[in-house]
Model the fold of this input.
Amino acid sequence: MKSLEKIFINGGTPLRGQVEIAGAKNAVLALLAGTILTRDCCRIDNIPFISDVTVMLNILRELGADVRRINKHCVEINTRHFNSGEVPYELTKHCRASYYLLGALFGRFGHARVAMPGGCDFGVRPIDQHIRGFEALGAAVSFEQNAIISMQSNQPQGTSIYLDIVSVGATINIMLAAVRARGVTVLENAAKEPHVVDLANFLNSCGADIRGAGTDVIKIHGVKELHGCEYATIPDQIEAGTYMAAIAASGGQALVTQVIPKHMECISAKLIECGVQVKEFDDSILVAANEPLRRCNIKTMPHPGFPTDMQPQFGALLTRAEGTSVLNEGIFDNRFRYMDQLVRMGAKVTVDGKIAVVEGVQELHGAQVKAYDLRAGAAMIIAGLSAHGETEVENIEFIDRGYEDIVGKLAAMGADIRRKIVKTDAEMRNVA
Ligand code: UD1
Done:
């Protein structure tokens, strides 16, 4: 059992200086699964040091991969000795992206048997589009007890697939499954997120032939074998956006470095609408909040629309913006749960299904709040940075899933924030 830790924030200090952004969580999780498709060694750099990556690397190790950490952000992986396409729930339960093992194992072995994953809970998260894609490629898919999916094909065969819903996960999973299939796969209504493009670039560096990633039609010419490669993960759009929102919420001015400004445009545009100055450089963005924040409306959409993974951070930011903002969650059914925690801090919010109306207040006050999931946790920190008094954030293991050293990075920008063990390992065992 692990010790119980919380994050404590004394709000009110404007963030200054600079913050360096790590590699993209959602890209690297797909790349790690992608290493299964080759029997050679892949060296992946710019890997974020976060718990979701640790979980995924452990899964690969358990399945027989040779995983060598070259340094904190660089890993070499060789899956030559994988001998099974089976992954039990014990391994998948902590990481939603473990469903990429389905596509990757199927792509390598022509069969896979994987327990359905855990991950952030923001409503029903079906995977019917993934399954439809696998079936179109020739997989016979069956569902077993305890949510285990089993699929088998003598020879996956390229085909045309039209996604009914723009799904990041289905796009990535189908790419993984189709890359070594016979013939050509045309995937229409594909997701265009930066991490979809990153996976295609990684697989192409391994000898795949994938064209059109980043548009809504992706063409995959199946190849017989993939080889190893050296690859660096793209910067994390959502981590960068989170710090941009944090700087704005604190009334600060700071440089966000190691980013691709093009990926940030949907987020920068909303900050500018809120009266924040945003200046782009080649690989960094300066954010300056010199005036009171103004209201704005947000509707989350697939890329290049405003990302659902930035909705909670903006929810927190807008609690103190002048006027009334409307947030419309266009992707998930139940992603406003965190609002009740902001209300504990003095926010004025009403939620009706997929719409939240936020009436800006003069100030928030510190409170004990919970991180319901990864991005909701980031929202609590942002609210805490701009609140008066002390905020105590619980359930921070969610935050560790996707933010590398968020406390250290914010403290280096002047925030009064710390992480504290509130119950030791031994005390936790006594409670249990
Ligand atoms: C990925 C991201 C997550 C992000 C989300 C949307 C990873 C590991 N996770 O999640 O951080 O919030 O994209 O940008 O990269 N849907 C179906 N059937 C399917 C698949 C999806 O109905 O087979 C629906 C979902 O319920 C949701 C929408 O499609 O309403 C989009 O989901 P999707 O893009 O697949 O999200 P994830 O891949 O789960």
